[in-house]
């Protein structure tokens, strides 16, 4: 189940990154119908059809054939998207996390700590020199 959720999320992010919406998939039948209309009326192949509706010939085709404007609006992949991101940088001289805490510490300790470390060799004459 986790794999299906991970794959579904990855596909959703992928489709959103290439700007493919669910409505585009629903409108694919309109694209096929309009292509069939173009192939019958004008004798266009698929590459010329794509150029007339999504490529270099789009402005010329929309000016010459105003009667098809309603059909052109229903074609998929006609998104006008804008990407705006707000970037905010905050420069502050104060550290974000302070080492000191505002919680008062008690002065009366309820424990005693004795150093239980004793050197293994003791104070024998075979110690390394303390000063060179």
From TrEMBL:
It comes from Flagellimonas nanhaiensis. Residues 57-74 have a biased composition (Basic and acidic residues). Residues 57-76 are annotated as: Disordered. This is Uncharacterized protein.
